[in-house]
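Q: I'm building a small set of examples for a reading group on sequence design. Run inverse folding on the following structure and report the sequence directly after it, with nothing in between.
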């Protein structure tokens, strides 16, 4: 019998992911004649660290180990296997990169825009995904209809996306729904035509390998944001990447999806006003200092080893 280790299975379609891959590195690695098509996305709005994900199809069958060698950094490779005769298998995996399918949106994933996708020349990934969606003939399930009616009735006041690992028995993230029957006043600011979204998925700290806890400051930030938005003269302002007061018309445009990450956007990048020449000089000096420190440590280790009798 032939061992699978000597003759591992070969496939043509693969999913690849890595925290070390960049868009340019992917494009450089996959610009080769045997690559039929690919599509990739930098996932930087998930509750995990920023990572690259892509799906690729080769013209000739390869093993997973051979695919890993196409890239200059360590990557995870998974074979894409679909049902026999399903010509939409590749499109289904491409669609997952955007997180746009109803099932993925229901799980609270961020919906990545089309312009965040990069693909091989000549591959119209959007047409591929749209054809899949039309074929499925998607109809809004009961939960989607309930969500729409709650928003249109003016009951939904605030949605807070919480981080994962808050409970001992499950790692999945949860969302907090604040509902109110009378949002036209009820002692507070009139807000019947808007909903507050708060993305708190990055809040808290890992107390153990499996449990995340929210500190008092985290809870206060959520509560203060909500009260500032709800109360008269609360001084509320949208916080990019954290909070957004969205109008009902905007929510309708997104098919009544109530995922905070869809609305709050990205955090504002810190302004770096250090002149490039000064930055290069500073970083060079810091690097040389680290080199010198490393040599000192090496010398100290040698001294200690000789004291122990090592040659």
């Amino acid at each position: 019998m032939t061992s699978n280790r000597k003759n591992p299975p070969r496939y043509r379609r693969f999913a690849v992911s890595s925290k070390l891959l960049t868009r340019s590195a992917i494009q450089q690695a996959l610009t080769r004649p045997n690559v039929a098509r690919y599509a990739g996305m930098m996932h930087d709005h998930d509750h995990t660290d920023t990572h690259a994900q892509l799906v690729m199809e080769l013209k000739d069958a390869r093993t997973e180990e051979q695919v890993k060698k196409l890239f200059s950094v360590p990557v995870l490779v998974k074979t894409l296997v679909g049902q026999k005769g399903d010509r939409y298998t590749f499109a289904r995996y491409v669609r997952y990169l955007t997180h746009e399918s109803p099932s993925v949106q229901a799980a609270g994933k961020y919906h990545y825009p089309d312009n965040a996708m990069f693909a091989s020349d000549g591959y119209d990934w959007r047409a591929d995904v749209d054809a899949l969606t039309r074929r499925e003939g998607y109809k809004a399930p009961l939960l989607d209809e309930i969500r729409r009616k709650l928003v249109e009735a003016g009951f939904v006041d605030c949605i807070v996306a919480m981080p994962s690992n808050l409970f001992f028995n499950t790692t999945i993230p949860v969302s907090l729904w604040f509902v109110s029957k009378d949002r036209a006043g009820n002692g507070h600011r009139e807000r019947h035509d808007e909903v507050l979204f708060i993305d708190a998925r990055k809040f808290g700290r890992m107390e153990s390998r499996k449990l995340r806890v929210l500190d008092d400051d985290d809870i206060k930030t959520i509560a203060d944001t909500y009260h500032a938005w709800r109360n008269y003269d609360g001084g509320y302002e949208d916080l990019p990447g954290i909070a957004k007061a969205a109008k009902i018309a905007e929510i309708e445009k997104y098919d009544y999806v109530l995922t905070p990450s869809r609305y709050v956007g990205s955090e504002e990048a810190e302004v770096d006003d250090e002149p490039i020449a000064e930055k290069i000089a500073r970083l060079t000096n810091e690097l040389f200092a680290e080199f010198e420190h490393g040599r000192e440590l090496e010398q100290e280790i040698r001294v200690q080893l000789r004291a122990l009798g090592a040659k």
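The CA atoms of residues 83 and 251 lie 36 Å apart.
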